[in-house]
Amino acid sequence: MEVQQNAPRENKMGVMPVNRLLVSMSIPMMISMLVQALYNVVDSMFVAQINENALTAVSLAFPMQNLMISVAVGTGVGVNALLSKSLGEKNFERANKAANQAIFLAVCNFLVFALIGIFFSRRFFEIQTDVQEIIDYGASYLTICNVFSFGVFGQITFERLLQSTGRTFYTMVTQGTGAILNIIFDPIMIFGLFGFPKMGVAGAAAATVFGQIVAAFIGFFINMKKNDEIRLTFKKFWPDGKIIRDIYLVGVPSIIMSALGSVMTFGMNMILISFTTTATAVFGVYFKLQSFAFMPVFGLNNGMVPIVAYNFGARKTRRLIRTVQLSVCYAVGIMLIALLIFQFIPDKLLLIFDASENMLQIGVPALRIISLSFLFAGFNVVTSSLFQALAHGFLSLSVSLIRQLFILLPLAYILSLTGKLELIWWAFPMAEIVAVILCSCYAAYVHRKDIKPLEAN
Protein backbone atom coordinates (compact mmCIF):
# COMPACT_ATOMS: atom_id res chain seq x y z
CA MET A 1 0.00 0.00 0.00
CA GLU A 2 2.82 2.38 0.80
CA VAL A 3 4.32 1.91 -2.66
CA GLN A 4 0.99 2.61 -4.32
CA GLN A 5 0.40 5.77 -2.31
CA ASN A 6 3.79 7.19 -3.19
CA ALA A 7 3.65 6.18 -6.88
CA PRO A 8 3.68 9.10 -9.31
CA ARG A 9 0.26 10.13 -10.54
CA GLU A 10 -0.30 9.30 -14.20
CA ASN A 11 -1.06 12.00 -16.73
CA LYS A 12 -4.79 12.45 -17.46
CA MET A 13 -4.21 11.28 -21.05
CA GLY A 14 -3.61 7.79 -19.68
CA VAL A 15 -6.50 7.55 -17.20
CA MET A 16 -9.37 9.95 -17.97
CA PRO A 17 -12.33 8.40 -19.85
CA VAL A 18 -11.43 8.69 -23.51
CA ASN A 19 -14.52 10.50 -24.74
CA ARG A 20 -14.39 13.13 -21.98
CA LEU A 21 -10.64 13.53 -22.48
CA LEU A 22 -10.97 14.00 -26.24
CA VAL A 23 -13.78 16.53 -25.91
CA SER A 24 -12.04 18.51 -23.15
CA MET A 25 -8.80 18.76 -25.11
CA SER A 26 -10.43 19.51 -28.47
CA ILE A 27 -13.17 22.04 -27.68
CA PRO A 28 -10.88 25.03 -26.87
CA MET A 29 -8.89 24.43 -30.06
CA MET A 30 -12.05 24.04 -32.12
CA ILE A 31 -13.40 27.34 -30.81
CA SER A 32 -10.11 29.08 -31.55
CA MET A 33 -10.06 27.76 -35.12
CA LEU A 34 -13.70 28.67 -35.69
CA VAL A 35 -12.86 32.26 -34.77
CA GLN A 36 -10.06 32.14 -37.36
CA ALA A 37 -12.53 30.83 -39.95
CA LEU A 38 -15.00 33.58 -39.06
CA TYR A 39 -12.59 36.41 -39.70
CA ASN A 40 -11.57 34.87 -43.05
CA VAL A 41 -15.20 34.90 -44.13
CA VAL A 42 -15.89 38.40 -42.80
CA ASP A 43 -12.85 39.71 -44.67
CA SER A 44 -14.18 38.46 -48.03
CA MET A 45 -17.77 39.41 -47.16
CA PHE A 46 -16.87 43.09 -46.86
CA VAL A 47 -14.56 43.00 -49.87
CA ALA A 48 -17.40 41.55 -51.96
CA GLN A 49 -19.43 44.69 -51.25
CA ILE A 50 -16.93 46.70 -53.31
CA ASN A 51 -17.46 44.59 -56.44
CA GLU A 52 -16.89 41.10 -57.81
CA ASN A 53 -13.43 41.97 -59.15
CA ALA A 54 -12.34 42.91 -55.63
CA LEU A 55 -13.48 39.49 -54.38
CA THR A 56 -11.66 37.80 -57.26
CA ALA A 57 -8.46 39.70 -56.42
CA VAL A 58 -8.54 38.52 -52.81
CA SER A 59 -9.24 34.97 -54.02
CA LEU A 60 -6.24 35.09 -56.37
CA ALA A 61 -4.05 36.35 -53.49
CA PHE A 62 -4.87 33.29 -51.36
CA PRO A 63 -2.07 30.98 -52.64
CA MET A 64 0.61 33.50 -51.64
CA GLN A 65 -1.01 34.14 -48.27
CA ASN A 66 -1.32 30.41 -47.65
CA LEU A 67 2.34 29.90 -48.58
CA MET A 68 3.33 32.55 -46.04
CA ILE A 69 1.26 30.89 -43.31
CA SER A 70 2.61 27.46 -44.32
CA VAL A 71 6.20 28.62 -43.79
CA ALA A 72 5.31 30.22 -40.44
CA VAL A 73 3.34 27.21 -39.16
CA GLY A 74 5.80 24.63 -40.51
CA THR A 75 8.70 26.42 -38.82
CA GLY A 76 6.58 26.54 -35.67
CA VAL A 77 6.00 22.78 -35.82
CA GLY A 78 9.77 22.24 -35.90
CA VAL A 79 10.26 24.64 -33.00
CA ASN A 80 7.49 22.89 -31.05
CA ALA A 81 9.10 19.49 -31.49
CA LEU A 82 12.61 20.61 -30.52
CA LEU A 83 11.58 22.87 -27.64
CA SER A 84 9.18 20.37 -26.04
CA LYS A 85 11.70 17.55 -26.41
CA SER A 86 14.43 19.68 -24.84
CA LEU A 87 12.22 20.60 -21.89
CA GLY A 88 11.33 16.93 -21.41
CA GLU A 89 15.03 16.11 -21.31
CA LYS A 90 15.62 18.99 -18.85
CA ASN A 91 17.97 20.54 -21.40
CA PHE A 92 16.95 24.13 -20.68
CA GLU A 93 19.91 25.63 -22.53
CA ARG A 94 18.81 24.02 -25.80
CA ALA A 95 15.18 24.92 -25.11
CA ASN A 96 16.13 28.58 -24.77
CA LYS A 97 18.20 28.41 -27.93
CA ALA A 98 15.27 26.89 -29.81
CA ALA A 99 12.95 29.66 -28.59
CA ASN A 100 15.33 32.42 -29.61
CA GLN A 101 16.15 30.81 -32.95
CA ALA A 102 12.39 30.69 -33.58
CA ILE A 103 12.31 34.49 -33.42
CA PHE A 104 15.42 34.76 -35.62
CA LEU A 105 13.80 32.50 -38.25
CA ALA A 106 10.56 34.49 -38.05
CA VAL A 107 12.50 37.67 -38.87
CA CYS A 108 14.30 35.98 -41.78
CA ASN A 109 11.07 34.59 -43.21
CA PHE A 110 9.38 37.97 -42.87
CA LEU A 111 12.19 39.68 -44.82
CA VAL A 112 11.88 37.15 -47.66
CA PHE A 113 8.13 37.64 -48.02
CA ALA A 114 8.40 41.42 -47.62
CA LEU A 115 10.76 41.51 -50.61
CA ILE A 116 8.37 39.28 -52.57
CA GLY A 117 5.57 41.71 -51.73
CA ILE A 118 7.54 44.75 -52.87
CA PHE A 119 8.94 43.34 -56.12
CA PHE A 120 6.58 40.54 -57.17
CA SER A 121 3.02 41.36 -56.05
CA ARG A 122 1.88 42.95 -59.31
CA ARG A 123 3.60 40.30 -61.43
CA PHE A 124 1.89 37.57 -59.38
CA PHE A 125 -1.52 38.84 -60.54
CA GLU A 126 -0.43 39.60 -64.11
CA ILE A 127 0.47 35.92 -64.46
CA GLN A 128 -3.09 34.97 -63.55
CA THR A 129 -5.24 37.57 -65.31
CA ASP A 130 -5.23 40.51 -67.72
CA VAL A 131 -8.13 42.33 -66.04
CA GLN A 132 -6.48 45.57 -64.93
CA GLU A 133 -8.85 46.28 -62.03
CA ILE A 134 -8.20 42.84 -60.52
CA ILE A 135 -4.44 43.36 -60.92
CA ASP A 136 -4.60 46.79 -59.23
CA TYR A 137 -6.76 45.53 -56.35
CA GLY A 138 -4.67 42.41 -55.87
CA ALA A 139 -1.27 44.12 -56.04
CA SER A 140 -2.20 46.64 -53.33
CA TYR A 141 -3.77 43.93 -51.14
CA LEU A 142 -0.85 41.51 -51.40
CA THR A 143 1.82 44.19 -51.02
CA ILE A 144 0.38 45.27 -47.68
CA CYS A 145 -0.03 41.66 -46.47
CA ASN A 146 3.58 40.80 -47.34
CA VAL A 147 5.36 43.99 -46.34
CA PHE A 148 3.73 43.90 -42.90
CA SER A 149 3.93 40.11 -42.54
CA PHE A 150 6.11 40.47 -39.43
CA GLY A 151 2.74 40.43 -37.67
CA VAL A 152 1.69 36.96 -38.83
CA PHE A 153 5.20 35.50 -38.41
CA GLY A 154 5.46 36.99 -34.93
CA GLN A 155 1.98 35.88 -33.89
CA ILE A 156 2.44 32.27 -35.00
CA THR A 157 5.94 32.06 -33.51
CA PHE A 158 4.94 33.35 -30.07
CA GLU A 159 1.83 31.13 -30.07
CA ARG A 160 3.99 28.08 -30.80
CA LEU A 161 6.32 28.95 -27.92
CA LEU A 162 3.30 29.02 -25.61
CA GLN A 163 1.99 25.71 -26.97
CA SER A 164 5.42 24.12 -26.55
CA THR A 165 5.29 24.74 -22.82
CA GLY A 166 1.64 23.70 -22.44
CA ARG A 167 0.13 27.20 -22.17
CA THR A 168 -2.52 26.67 -24.83
CA PHE A 169 -5.08 28.96 -23.14
CA TYR A 170 -2.94 31.98 -23.96
CA THR A 171 -2.84 31.05 -27.64
CA MET A 172 -6.62 31.34 -27.63
CA VAL A 173 -6.22 34.86 -26.24
CA THR A 174 -3.81 35.96 -28.98
CA GLN A 175 -5.73 34.31 -31.82
CA GLY A 176 -9.08 35.58 -30.60
CA THR A 177 -7.84 39.14 -30.10
CA GLY A 178 -6.27 39.29 -33.55
CA ALA A 179 -9.36 37.88 -35.25
CA ILE A 180 -11.81 40.17 -33.41
CA LEU A 181 -9.74 43.27 -34.22
CA ASN A 182 -9.69 42.24 -37.87
CA ILE A 183 -13.47 41.81 -37.92
CA ILE A 184 -14.00 45.21 -36.27
CA PHE A 185 -11.58 47.16 -38.47
CA ASP A 186 -12.49 45.50 -41.79
CA PRO A 187 -15.54 47.72 -42.52
CA ILE A 188 -13.91 50.74 -40.89
CA MET A 189 -10.85 50.64 -43.14
CA ILE A 190 -12.57 49.36 -46.29
CA PHE A 191 -15.41 51.90 -46.32
CA GLY A 192 -13.78 54.77 -44.39
CA LEU A 193 -15.94 54.88 -41.27
CA PHE A 194 -15.41 57.05 -38.14
CA GLY A 195 -13.00 59.42 -39.87
CA PHE A 196 -10.72 56.73 -41.30
CA PRO A 197 -9.77 57.10 -44.98
CA LYS A 198 -11.69 54.90 -47.43
CA MET A 199 -9.07 52.31 -48.49
CA GLY A 200 -11.14 49.72 -50.36
CA VAL A 201 -9.40 46.37 -50.87
CA ALA A 202 -6.23 47.77 -49.31
CA GLY A 203 -8.28 48.41 -46.15
CA ALA A 204 -9.04 44.69 -45.86
CA ALA A 205 -5.31 43.98 -45.97
CA ALA A 206 -4.62 46.75 -43.45
CA ALA A 207 -7.22 45.36 -41.01
CA THR A 208 -5.73 41.88 -41.37
CA VAL A 209 -2.14 42.92 -40.67
CA PHE A 210 -3.26 45.22 -37.83
CA GLY A 211 -4.92 42.30 -36.04
CA GLN A 212 -1.86 40.12 -36.62
CA ILE A 213 0.56 42.76 -35.33
CA VAL A 214 -1.46 43.33 -32.15
CA ALA A 215 -1.67 39.55 -31.59
CA ALA A 216 2.10 39.28 -32.08
CA PHE A 217 2.79 41.94 -29.44
CA ILE A 218 0.38 40.28 -27.01
CA GLY A 219 2.09 36.94 -27.65
CA PHE A 220 5.51 38.48 -27.01
CA PHE A 221 4.30 40.10 -23.78
CA ILE A 222 2.73 36.87 -22.49
CA ASN A 223 5.89 34.89 -23.25
CA MET A 224 8.00 37.44 -21.41
CA LYS A 225 5.71 37.61 -18.38
CA LYS A 226 4.06 34.20 -18.10
CA ASN A 227 6.27 31.68 -19.91
CA ASP A 228 8.97 31.16 -17.28
CA GLU A 229 10.26 27.92 -18.86
CA ILE A 230 12.05 29.85 -21.61
CA ARG A 231 14.05 33.07 -21.66
CA LEU A 232 14.05 35.31 -24.71
CA THR A 233 17.31 37.21 -24.99
CA PHE A 234 19.29 38.86 -27.80
CA LYS A 235 22.39 36.93 -26.72
CA LYS A 236 20.91 33.75 -28.22
CA PHE A 237 19.22 35.51 -31.15
CA TRP A 238 22.05 35.06 -33.66
CA PRO A 239 21.92 32.00 -35.95
CA ASP A 240 22.83 28.59 -34.60
CA GLY A 241 23.21 26.16 -37.52
CA LYS A 242 22.60 22.99 -35.50
CA ILE A 243 19.44 24.31 -33.85
CA ILE A 244 18.11 25.61 -37.18
CA ARG A 245 18.84 22.25 -38.82
CA ASP A 246 17.00 20.39 -36.05
CA ILE A 247 14.02 22.74 -36.38
CA TYR A 248 13.71 22.26 -40.14
CA LEU A 249 14.26 18.51 -40.10
CA VAL A 250 10.76 18.42 -38.62
CA GLY A 251 9.47 21.69 -40.07
CA VAL A 252 10.22 21.24 -43.77
CA PRO A 253 7.86 18.25 -44.33
CA SER A 254 5.12 20.21 -42.58
CA ILE A 255 5.82 23.28 -44.76
CA ILE A 256 5.72 21.17 -47.92
CA MET A 257 2.45 19.48 -46.96
CA SER A 258 0.79 22.79 -46.14
CA ALA A 259 2.24 24.57 -49.17
CA LEU A 260 0.73 21.96 -51.48
CA GLY A 261 -2.55 23.77 -50.91
CA SER A 262 -1.03 26.93 -52.41
CA VAL A 263 0.13 25.06 -55.50
CA MET A 264 -3.27 23.40 -55.92
CA THR A 265 -5.17 26.68 -55.46
CA PHE A 266 -2.91 28.55 -57.88
CA GLY A 267 -3.39 25.80 -60.46
CA MET A 268 -7.17 25.76 -60.01
CA ASN A 269 -7.32 29.55 -60.31
CA MET A 270 -5.43 29.35 -63.62
CA ILE A 271 -7.86 26.71 -64.92
CA LEU A 272 -11.00 28.52 -63.75
CA ILE A 273 -10.04 32.02 -64.85
CA SER A 274 -9.75 30.75 -68.43
CA PHE A 275 -13.55 30.36 -68.27
CA THR A 276 -14.49 33.47 -66.32
CA THR A 277 -13.22 35.54 -63.39
CA THR A 278 -16.52 34.79 -61.64
CA ALA A 279 -15.57 31.10 -61.42
CA THR A 280 -12.38 32.10 -59.61
CA ALA A 281 -14.41 34.24 -57.20
CA VAL A 282 -16.70 31.27 -56.55
CA PHE A 283 -13.71 29.05 -55.81
CA GLY A 284 -12.36 31.68 -53.40
CA VAL A 285 -15.73 31.87 -51.64
CA TYR A 286 -15.83 28.08 -51.36
CA PHE A 287 -12.45 28.07 -49.65
CA LYS A 288 -13.64 30.62 -47.11
CA LEU A 289 -16.87 28.71 -46.40
CA GLN A 290 -15.33 25.24 -46.19
CA SER A 291 -13.07 26.45 -43.38
CA PHE A 292 -16.12 26.40 -41.09
CA ALA A 293 -16.28 22.64 -41.63
CA PHE A 294 -12.57 21.85 -41.68
CA MET A 295 -11.37 24.12 -38.86
CA PRO A 296 -13.36 22.27 -36.13
CA VAL A 297 -12.01 18.98 -37.51
CA PHE A 298 -8.46 20.36 -37.35
CA GLY A 299 -9.14 21.44 -33.77
CA LEU A 300 -10.40 17.94 -33.01
CA ASN A 301 -7.18 16.56 -34.48
CA ASN A 302 -5.07 18.84 -32.31
CA GLY A 303 -6.77 17.29 -29.30
CA MET A 304 -6.49 13.76 -30.66
CA VAL A 305 -2.79 13.69 -31.60
CA PRO A 306 -1.27 14.05 -28.11
CA ILE A 307 -3.70 11.47 -26.71
CA VAL A 308 -2.75 8.97 -29.43
CA ALA A 309 0.96 9.64 -29.01
CA TYR A 310 0.79 9.37 -25.22
CA ASN A 311 -1.14 6.12 -25.18
CA PHE A 312 1.05 4.66 -27.90
CA GLY A 313 4.06 5.38 -25.71
CA ALA A 314 2.23 3.93 -22.69
CA ARG A 315 1.32 0.82 -24.76
CA LYS A 316 -2.39 1.37 -24.07
CA THR A 317 -3.66 0.31 -27.47
CA ARG A 318 -7.33 0.12 -26.48
CA ARG A 319 -7.31 3.78 -25.48
CA LEU A 320 -5.42 4.68 -28.65
CA ILE A 321 -7.85 2.85 -30.92
CA ARG A 322 -10.87 4.21 -29.04
CA THR A 323 -9.54 7.75 -29.43
CA VAL A 324 -9.15 7.31 -33.19
CA GLN A 325 -12.60 5.73 -33.52
CA LEU A 326 -14.27 8.57 -31.64
CA SER A 327 -12.31 11.16 -33.62
CA VAL A 328 -13.43 9.64 -36.90
CA CYS A 329 -17.07 9.60 -35.71
CA TYR A 330 -16.97 13.24 -34.60
CA ALA A 331 -15.13 14.36 -37.76
CA VAL A 332 -17.53 12.55 -40.07
CA GLY A 333 -20.48 13.98 -38.12
CA ILE A 334 -19.16 17.54 -38.48
CA MET A 335 -18.55 17.08 -42.20
CA LEU A 336 -22.04 15.57 -42.73
CA ILE A 337 -23.62 18.65 -41.14
CA ALA A 338 -21.53 20.85 -43.44
CA LEU A 339 -22.54 18.72 -46.44
CA LEU A 340 -26.25 19.18 -45.66
CA ILE A 341 -25.80 22.95 -45.36
CA PHE A 342 -23.93 23.16 -48.67
CA GLN A 343 -26.55 20.97 -50.38
CA PHE A 344 -29.68 22.73 -49.13
CA ILE A 345 -28.76 26.44 -48.90
CA PRO A 346 -25.82 27.08 -51.27
CA ASP A 347 -27.54 30.22 -52.59
CA LYS A 348 -27.84 31.67 -49.07
CA LEU A 349 -24.13 31.01 -48.47
CA LEU A 350 -23.17 32.79 -51.68
CA LEU A 351 -25.42 35.76 -50.94
CA ILE A 352 -23.31 36.42 -47.83
CA PHE A 353 -20.72 37.60 -50.37
CA ASP A 354 -23.18 39.79 -52.29
CA ALA A 355 -23.29 37.27 -55.15
CA SER A 356 -24.58 38.42 -58.54
CA GLU A 357 -27.00 36.35 -60.65
CA ASN A 358 -24.05 35.08 -62.70
CA MET A 359 -22.15 34.14 -59.54
CA LEU A 360 -25.17 32.28 -58.19
CA GLN A 361 -25.61 30.44 -61.50
CA ILE A 362 -22.00 29.21 -61.32
CA GLY A 363 -21.70 28.93 -57.54
CA VAL A 364 -24.79 26.93 -56.55
CA PRO A 365 -23.88 23.78 -58.54
CA ALA A 366 -20.20 24.29 -57.63
CA LEU A 367 -20.86 24.22 -53.88
CA ARG A 368 -23.17 21.24 -54.18
CA ILE A 369 -20.69 19.20 -56.23
CA ILE A 370 -17.51 20.09 -54.30
CA SER A 371 -19.18 19.47 -50.93
CA LEU A 372 -19.75 15.82 -51.88
CA SER A 373 -16.07 15.41 -50.99
CA PHE A 374 -17.06 16.13 -47.36
CA LEU A 375 -18.43 12.56 -47.20
CA PHE A 376 -14.85 11.28 -47.20
CA ALA A 377 -12.81 14.24 -45.92
CA GLY A 378 -13.47 13.69 -42.20
CA PHE A 379 -12.01 10.18 -42.29
CA ASN A 380 -9.06 11.32 -44.40
CA VAL A 381 -8.12 14.21 -42.12
CA VAL A 382 -8.24 12.12 -38.93
CA THR A 383 -6.26 9.19 -40.34
CA SER A 384 -3.63 11.56 -41.77
CA SER A 385 -3.19 13.01 -38.29
CA LEU A 386 -2.93 9.48 -36.88
CA PHE A 387 0.03 8.85 -39.19
CA GLN A 388 1.73 12.02 -37.93
CA ALA A 389 1.09 11.10 -34.29
CA LEU A 390 2.81 7.73 -34.83
CA ALA A 391 5.79 9.30 -36.64
CA HIS A 392 4.66 8.37 -40.15
CA GLY A 393 4.63 11.91 -41.50
CA PHE A 394 5.64 10.71 -44.95
CA LEU A 395 2.36 8.81 -45.28
CA SER A 396 0.40 12.00 -44.58
CA LEU A 397 2.56 13.92 -47.03
CA SER A 398 2.07 11.32 -49.76
CA VAL A 399 -1.74 11.38 -49.33
CA SER A 400 -1.77 15.17 -49.67
CA LEU A 401 0.64 15.12 -52.60
CA ILE A 402 -1.24 12.44 -54.54
CA ARG A 403 -4.68 13.90 -53.83
CA GLN A 404 -3.90 17.50 -54.76
CA LEU A 405 -1.16 17.38 -57.40
CA PHE A 406 -1.45 13.95 -59.01
CA ILE A 407 -5.25 13.55 -59.03
CA LEU A 408 -7.16 16.79 -58.44
CA LEU A 409 -5.26 19.25 -60.65
CA PRO A 410 -4.70 16.94 -63.66
CA LEU A 411 -8.29 15.74 -63.48
CA ALA A 412 -9.62 19.32 -63.25
CA TYR A 413 -7.55 20.26 -66.31
CA ILE A 414 -8.77 17.24 -68.31
CA LEU A 415 -12.38 18.04 -67.40
CA SER A 416 -11.84 21.69 -68.39
CA LEU A 417 -11.02 20.56 -71.93
CA THR A 418 -14.68 19.61 -72.34
CA GLY A 419 -15.52 23.31 -72.21
CA LYS A 420 -18.07 22.68 -69.45
CA LEU A 421 -17.24 24.57 -66.26
CA GLU A 422 -19.58 22.52 -64.05
CA LEU A 423 -17.60 19.32 -64.79
CA ILE A 424 -14.41 20.75 -63.25
CA TRP A 425 -15.91 20.70 -59.76
CA TRP A 426 -16.22 16.90 -59.89
CA ALA A 427 -12.44 16.66 -59.58
CA PHE A 428 -12.79 17.39 -55.85
CA PRO A 429 -14.97 14.44 -54.73
CA MET A 430 -13.12 12.12 -57.13
CA ALA A 431 -9.75 13.09 -55.63
CA GLU A 432 -11.15 12.59 -52.12
CA ILE A 433 -12.27 9.05 -53.02
CA VAL A 434 -8.70 8.23 -54.05
CA ALA A 435 -7.52 9.69 -50.74
CA VAL A 436 -9.95 7.43 -48.82
CA ILE A 437 -8.48 4.37 -50.48
CA LEU A 438 -4.93 5.51 -49.70
CA CYS A 439 -5.73 6.40 -46.08
CA SER A 440 -7.46 3.06 -45.52
CA CYS A 441 -4.47 1.13 -46.89
CA TYR A 442 -2.02 3.23 -44.87
CA ALA A 443 -4.12 2.84 -41.70
CA ALA A 444 -4.07 -0.95 -42.13
CA TYR A 445 -0.29 -0.79 -42.59
CA VAL A 446 0.22 1.36 -39.47
CA HIS A 447 -2.02 -0.93 -37.41
CA ARG A 448 -0.13 -4.01 -38.55
CA LYS A 449 3.31 -2.45 -38.11
CA ASP A 450 2.95 -0.36 -34.94
CA ILE A 451 -0.26 -1.08 -33.04
CA LYS A 452 -0.75 -4.82 -33.38
CA PRO A 453 2.71 -5.69 -31.97
CA LEU A 454 1.78 -3.77 -28.80
CA GLU A 455 -1.47 -5.70 -28.50
CA ALA A 456 0.49 -8.94 -28.72
CA ASN A 457 2.62 -7.87 -25.80
Provide structural commentary:
84% of the residues lie in helices and 0% in strands. With 457 residues, it is mainly alpha-helical. Helix 3 packs antiparallel against helix 4, helix 8 packs antiparallel against helix 9 and helix 15 (374-389) packs antiparallel against helix 16. It has two domains: 11-27 and 275-457, no CATH class; 49-253, no CATH class. It is built from 18 helices and no strands. The model is unreliable at 1-8 (pLDDT under 50). It has helices spanning 2-6, 12-15, 18-48, 52-88, 92-126, 132-147, 150-164, 168-191, 201-226, 241-273, 277-313, 317-344, 346-351, 357-370, 374-389, 393-416, 421-424, 427-456.
Labels describing this entry:
18 helices, globular, about 450 residues, single chain
| Number of helical stretches of at least 4 residues | 18
How many domain units? 2
Structural class: mainly alpha
User: How far is the first residue's CA from the last residue's CA?
Assistant: 27 Å
Q: What is the N-to-C succession of helices and strands?
A: HHHHHHHHHHHHHHHHHH
Question: How many β-strand runs?
Answer: 0
Largest sheet: none
Helix content: over 70%
Q: Give the overall form.
A: globular
Structural Rg: 22 Å
What fraction of residues sit in β-strands?
Answer: under 5%
Low-confidence stretches: 1-8
Mean pLDDT: 86
Quick recap:
Helices cover 84% and strands 0% of the residues.
How would the blueprint of this fold be written?
Elements: H1 2-6, H2 12-15, H3 18-48, H4 52-88, H5 92-126, H6 132-147, H7 150-164, H8 168-191, H9 201-226, H10 241-273, H11 277-313, H12 317-344, H13 346-351, H14 357-370, H15 374-389, H16 393-416, H17 421-424, H18 427-456
Helix pairs in contact: 3-4, 3-8, 3-11, 4-5, 4-6, 4-7, 4-10, 4-11, 5-6, 5-7, 6-9, 7-8, 7-9, 8-9, 10-11, 10-16, 11-12, 11-14, 11-15, 12-15, 15-16, 15-18, 16-18
